[in-house]
Amino acid sequence: MTIPLGPGAEFDLIRSLVERWGPRARGIGDDAAVFRPTRGDSIVASVDASVEGRHFDSAWLSPREIGYRAVTAALSDLAAMGARPRGILVAIALSENWQHKLLNIANGIGDAVDAAQTVILGGNLSAARELSFTTTVFGEAFEPLRRSGAMPGDRVYVPGRLGGVGEALRRLKAGESAAHLRERFAKPTARLEEGRWLAGAGVNAAIDISDGLVADLRHLAAASAVDIEISADRIVLMPGTDIEGALVSGEEYELAVTSPKTIDLRAFETAFGIPLTEIGRVIARGTGNVGVIGARVAARAGHDHFSR
Ligand SMILES: [Mg+2]
Known about the structure:
Distance between the termini: 48 Å
Oligomer: single chain
Bound molecules: magnesium ion
Largest sheet: 6 strands, mixed
Shape: globular
Strand order of the largest sheet: 6-8-5-9-7-10
């Protein structure tokens, strides 16, 4: 697709991006993106930043993986809402040393968009001192899942196997090979179809695990004004990881959901090829406490940009 932009180095870069994305870039070239929402659905939107040195380290990831992760992290919030993606806006702040890698980054953004079966509706490119991405995602859902819907008596479920990302990071920081765990860290999956399936199965609250299982369950419990209890020995681990790490491992982009109904675990596993595990219960109305039976978790477990 050729886009009708005037001359200039910035616009040449934008043209090269849009060319690289091909049909995955849709309707680019106007001052704003336009899409027509499905009648009756709510629009679900979220924005997410990914900053070099904060969210990623170029020593551990290729430019393609960096682009992929930035967009996948943003899309994961749509998964948590049970929403179907309709498109993304991606703003790239590009430092000079990254300029020649821009198209590799673009490939990764394209990979993420393909994996989510969505499109790039627009974006922004600016010069900066460090590489960063700000990704806005738009989705739709008839009844979006929220964090605040959990009720006493609900079961707590988590899809997938936890711990891989935290352990991969620990190994990379220690200068060791992350081996089979590297893929979980470098190529996470936004559980979009899983999120919609769970919404259809009667889930009443959901969150994605970006800060760590316990930390994110605390957010969900606080939003729902309930207390939750989970059993450490129920949690399915990635091989080569331990439970203490898995409870706080961030950037997993798995979901944590609560449901008043029993969910058909086998049907889920058949549909998606990953386990769905009941890990605990919403025990009572409360103030957002999350108890873990069988493991010790720090009171402030999980990622927090502004904690000291
Ligand atoms: Mg989230």
